[in-house]
Amino acid sequence: MHIIYRCLWVGVLLSLWIACGGEKSNEDKPKQLAIIVSTLNNPWFVFLAETAKEEAQNRGYVARIFDSQNNTSLESDHFENAVALGYDAILLNATDSDGSIANARKAMEAGIPVFCMDRELNNPDAATSQIVSDSYSGCVELGGLFVRSLGQKGKYVELLGLVGDNNTWNRSKGFHAVVDHFPEIQMVAQQSADFDRNKAMEVLESILQAHPDVDAVFCGNDAMAMGAYQALVAAGKAKDIQVFGFDGSEDAVRSIQSGGLSATVMQFPQKIAETAVVFAGEYFEGNTEFSPKTLVDVEMVTPANVSIYSSYGKE
Known about the structure:
Protein name: D-ribose ABC transporter substrate-binding protein
Helix content: 40-55%
Radius of gyration: 24 Å
Order of helices and strands: HEHEHEHEEHEHEHEHEHEHEEEE
Shape: elongated
Strand order of the largest sheet: 2-1-3-4-5-11
Subcellular location: Cell envelope
Mean pLDDT: 92
GO molecular function: carbohydrate binding
Number of strands: 14
Keywords: Signal
CATH superfamily of the largest domain: Response regulator
Distance between the termini: 76 Å
Domain Periplasmic binding protein: 34-287
């Protein structure tokens, strides 16, 4: 009997200990954020992911980065793991504007908010909110500079990014909204290089064989711009053909400083990442009403103002 009473007494004490905070409740546990990015093979996305992780940790959250390697199926695996492991929010840099919709919906249906960073999904209902650069407006401005730099006439090549990414088409459409109004500026080739530096170099090398007399190259991101410039250096044409990019990467800023690239458009991935984490925090505090899309301003970087910029931001 003494043993029975002793066991009952221990059980009571254990219950009291748990009730008084001896074991953390779910509310006491730090929130977990899954940061799912399209690829870590691009320094821009590495910076975006690491910035989001640092901001999350500064706010007391637990954050982990998942690399989708530009593969929607691998991205799907990451979402399934995030749902199964009970993550509290997902910050998504999507692999595909259409193909990633189903993945985002998995989390949303499981009650996990999804905040898109930089890459936009074609269905706004598939995410809680989307924080993206104003790529269209940035390339409208870049198109104006492009026209002036060519003196309103010449031949050019356009290197597109991933065809399944909205950024590819927003940038291209913004650029063409200006350039297409000048009939003496002729596009002789338009080809995808998947936002990849090495592929851009190979693609432009091939194009130059058919069109050696081009005057400029417009690239949908800085990785491709640097690859294109590398191809021009190898062909001995770097001083004759202008190259324009988009991102504001460290390589691009340095290249403009040294007389390489003609211009780029500076995105601000730090602001994008920090805004996504802030929105996640607001969601944790009970806010469920967010704007479907938040546009982050971009800025033109040229030899005239490059001194005030560093990689992915201002000095």
